[in-house]
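note to self — DONT lose this again. spent like an hour looking for the file last time. sequence + predicted structure for the chain T wanted, 16 res
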Amino acid sequence: VDPGESTFIDEGATGR
């Protein structure tokens, strides 16, 4: 899992 994916899972799209 790259940083964008983990933020997507955690915050709902913030890292995308």
